[in-house]
Amino acid sequence: MNALPRRRLVALAALAAAGITPLGAAAQDAWPSKPIRIVVPYPAGGTTDQLARAIQAPMAESLGQPIVIENKAGAGGTLGTDLVAKSAPDGYTLVFGNSGPNALAGLVRKLPYDTLKDLRPVSTVAIVPMLLAVPAEAPYRTVKEFIAYARTQGTGLNFGSVGNGSISHLTGELFNEMAGLKLQHIPYNGGAPMVTAFAGGQLHAAFVTGLDGGPMVQAGRIRYLGAGTPARSDVVPGVPAVAEDVPGFRSQAWFGVLAPRDTPADIVAKLNAAIAKAVARPELRKLFAERNVEARAGTPAELEKLIRDEIAQWGPVVTRAEIKP
Questions:
Q1: What is the DSSP string of 96-129?
Q2: For all residues of the chain together, what is the average pLDDT?
Q3: Banded pLDDT at 187 (limits 50, 70, 90)
């Protein structure tokens, strides 16, 4: 009669020696047991914020817990990203990241975190081509015409970006280099402020996403001259590729979710599955398509490769353009 309790005591002792308790195991299996916070490191209303909110409800439905979006803007997206990098790796604090603070900003200045060491990729959500936008009343109608006009203006034209070291900034510098231009860079703290400046007539050009530029295109305030896709794409129907006039030009951004580096693999797997399920929804894919966004979930390894590839692509641009903090 005493043999069974004795075996149980031995098993419990072994678990305790390993730092494991039945209660702890049950708690881990119960994840998530409270709301999950997704930090958007930019102001509300911009591309990153819009994409994060698009997956908010579907993820909450899959995981059975509320998803809370928190905007923590500043320092080109690095302030909010650093907050998550230093958060507890328990799956309850995530960052909705993009190319800027997770691959590019570190090429420009020293950061308080290392994306590849301090953050754990979970999944992409979208791939977004950068679009060359100009005021609707501008006299040039094509990329070729814009380049010809800009060359006559020297440093008299500008281009806007969502922040120093961002994908929109580096894309503009790459365009300057490859097209032989001298457009002057004007950084803003996020997509929404940049679009407001564009609407106010303060910018001559900008590389924007379809989410930032779409409402202004529909309102007749700006138009797209070209896309950063390697060739013409159904993601931006009717818009030629910039590469048709600037051979080899390419610029596309990724958006996705990352967690603190030591987040357990099983939690990352559950988050990845919830994101994949959200991105597969027909209504979300339709929403993205209407805004020139390619819905694309992926594995953590695929997102990590995207980050490494971007660092390799944009590092030389930062060096040649002498981009400083």
A1: EEEHIIIIIHHHHS--SS-HHHHEEEEEEEEEEE
A2: 91
A3: very high
Contacts of 152 (CB under 8 A, 6+ apart): none
Per-residue pLDDT of 52-101, as tens digits, reads: 999 999 999 999 999 999 999 988 899 999 999 999 999 999 999 999 99
Tell me if 236 sits within 8 A of 145, measured CB to CB: no
For tokens 């994908």, the residue is 167
C-alpha distances in Å from residue 179, one per residue of 82, 124, 165, 248: 35, 31, 20, 11
Residue 167: CB partners within 8 Å, gap ≥ 6? Answer: 98, 99, 100, 104, 130, 207, 251, 253
DSSP assignment string, 46-71: SHHHHHHHHHHHHHHHHHTS-EEEEE
| Structural domains of the chain sorted by starting position, each given as residue range(s) with its CATH number in brackets | 35-127+253-321 (3.40.190.150), 131-251 (3.40.190.10)
The pLDDT tens digits for 244-253 are 999 999 999 9
Label residue 163 left, alpha or beta by phi (over 0 means left) and psi (-120 to 50 means alpha). left
Task: Give the C-alpha distances (Å, rounded to integers) separating 69 from 41, 272, 287.
Answer: 10, 18, 19
- Mean pLDDT, rounded, for 161-174: 92
Instruction: Give the three-class secondary structure for 147.
Output: helix
Tell me what pLDDT residue 162 has. 87
Closest CA to 135 of 238, 46, 224, 241: 224
Phi-psi region of 292 (alpha: psi -120 to 50; beta: other; left: phi over 0): left
Q: Looking at this protein, which amino acid is placed at residue 5?
A: P
Confidence of residue 28 (pLDDT cuts 50, 70, 90): low
Task: Round to whole Å and give the CA distance between 105 and 78.
Answer: 8
Please count the other Cβ atoms lying within 10 Å of the Cβ belonging to residue 113: 20
DSSP state of 244: G
